[in-house]
Design a protein that fits this description.
526 residues; alpha+beta; Pdz3 Domain; hydrolase; Tail-specific_protease; endopeptidase activity; protease; ClpP/crotonase-like_dom_sf
């Protein structure tokens, strides 16, 4: 009975939402119809409060009703409560107040993956591999990473009490850590892959992203960079101005970056580079995948349409809806879709969502086939397609771990746990890979932990296990950038990007010839 009423409560909320949105959004409905809908909504909410055996709080009911209304519009219009809106603002501004540590949910608690260099946690002696058992006296058992993150963040200078479990020490270690400003840089990694190839990974787009990118490019040039790989994989977007700022650094003069059109197709707003912009002529390859969305797709689409560089990886998400973030009572927010994005060639970025949100949020594996949308032409006449995200110029299959590796890496977190053990008992050197000796110790340790490792699984997955262990060893000993550099050595997308650099150079030269860039521009920077 309770389950029946719970289902019906959700139906009542949605029914009230439909009753509210129909007259509210229809231009022909008058104030009388709108008031009738509001009265219906109020009456149903009152009935739910009085009759349901498990009545929701007014806050829960209001939140569900608003979200139900917004989701009848499109997948991305969204209402944010106080904590969600605060988190959004922190991510956009590029800093927050916390302890300065990368954390991850663990079966024993919340694991410290890596303290941030110079942050409060590192200064007080928190280490990689420590398990947070308590936060301000509250057990972390069953706590999600996001819930722990909310507890660890707070006002500047306030104290958070944490209790840590550290390998080899029976008693919990207790720390009183003052929260301090922790930068959330969008440019997550910036280093040289080889003497001439720079690598920049942008994890999201915030208010400081364009400035961070400019500094990173300048720093890599001083180290000898002649060509660049820009990694936007897993970058779900963010602030539009940040994407525009990066495009203005990559594209030539007076080039269209992105167009925005209102829902009726009118009120078009175009954003271009300045007429006096100077193209910085280094070959460029951009990496994308299904997790690349919104602002990432604007950058990749503009680069691709203007033949500024090549795009490698998997088809991007396909989020081409523009959300205007509106503040409600200073502490809450409404992200309301007000327009659509179009790339310079005129193609829509947005993927179809008319078949339901389940299909939209859980798309089938399209094996990187080009969408069945209209064809467009780049500046040099290459064919690109609209209506389904950004298709890479060179599509690579998505790499997936088999069930055996999923068990070891995620369910048992075996590589991370062993790396902590290895560091404590044998030490880890910078750049060290897991050799046969380390793999022998790992197998013995895994058997002690009662993990299932058959000879067949061991032989079939040996190379992948060695790679994962090498990455985690560097993570826990020297930080996640050190581990990521190990990962880059065999990453298929990065290896393909390096292979394609001569083609990216040829494409750039054709573009320069087409636009008749002054020779002095090339000579001064190439």
């Amino acid at each position: 009975m309770a389950r029946f009423l719970k289902r019906n409560w959700m139906w009542l909320v949605m029914a009230a939402t439909v009753a509210l949105t129909g007259p509210l959004l229809a231009r022909s409905s008058g104030e009388t119809a709108r008031q009738r809908s509001l009265d219906t909504l109020t009456e149903i909410m009152d009935l739910v409060q009085k009759q349901s055996p498990e009545p929701p709080t007014p806050r829960q009911l209001t939140h569900a009703t608003i979200q139900g209304m917004l989701h009848t519009l499109d997948p991305h219009s969204n209402y944010m409560d106080e904590s969600e809106f605060r988190l959004l603002r922190e991510e956009q501004k590029g800093s927050f107040f916390g302890i300065g540590a990368i954390i991850q949910q663990h079966d024993q608690g919340i694991a410290i993956i890596s303290p941030m260099k110079g942050g409060p946690a590192e200064r007080l002696g928190v280490r990689s591999g420590d398990i947070i058992k308590e936060i301000d006296g509250t057990s972390t058992e069953g706590m999600s990473s996001n819930a722990a993150l909310q507890k660890l963040r707070g006002e500047k200078g306030t104290i958070v009490e944490i209790a840590l479990q550290r390998g080899g020490i029976a008693e919990l270690l207790r720390f009183s850590i003052p929260r301090a400003e922790v930068p959330t840089n969008s440019v997550y990694y910036s280093f040289m892959l080889n003497p001439t190839t720079g690598f920049i990974l942008i994890k999201d787009f915030g208010e400081t992203t364009a400035e961070e990118f400019e500094k990173a490019v300048g720093n890599l040039k001083r180290q000898g960079m002649k060509q660049l790989i820009l990694d936007l994989r897993g970058n779900g977007g963010g602030v539009l101005d940040a994407a525009i700022g990066i495009c203005r650094q990559l594209l030539g003069p007076d080039q269209l970056i992105v167009s925005q059109k209102g829902r009726d197709g009118r009120d078009e707003n175009q954003t271009r580079t300045s007429k006096g912009a100077m193209l910085d002529p280094f070959p460029l390859v951009i990496l994308i995948n299904r997790g690349s969305a919104s602002a990432s797709e604007i950058v990749a689409g503009a680069v691709q349409d203007h033949d500024r560089g090549l795009v490698v990886g998997q088809t991007s998400w396909g989020k081409g809806l523009v959300q205007s973030v509106l503040t409600i009572n200073r502490s809450r927010g409404l992200a309301l879709t007000t327009a659509r994005y179009y790339t310079p060639s005129g193609r829509s970025i947005q993927r179809d969502y008319t078949h339901g949100l389940d299909d939209y949020y859980n798309p089938e594996d399209e094996k990187d086939a080009k969408p069945q949308g209209p064809a467009y032409k780049t500046d040099l006449g290459r064919t690109v397609y609209g209506g389904g995200g950004i298709n890479p110029d060179y599509a690579l299959p998505t790499l997936r771990l088999n069930e055996f590796m999923v068990d070891l890496r995620f369910r048992h977190q075996a590589f991370f746990r062993f790396a902590v053990h290895e560091k404590e008992h044998f030490g880890i050197k910078a750049g060290q890979h897991a050799d046969e000796v380390v793999m022998g110790r790992f197998r013995a340790w895994a058997l002690e932990q009662k993990l299932t490792l058959s000879d067949k699984d061991w032989e079939a997955n040996l190379a992948t296990m060695q790679e994962q262990l090498s990455i985690e060893m560097q993570n826990v000993a020297f930080g996640i950038e050190a581990g990521f550099k190990i990962q880059c050595e065999k990453n298929p997308e990065i290896l393909k990007a390096l292979e394609l650099m001569p083609e990216a150079e040829a494409l750039l030269q054709k573009k320069l010839l087409l636009r008749r860039e002054p020779a002095s521009t090339v000579a001064s920077t190439h």
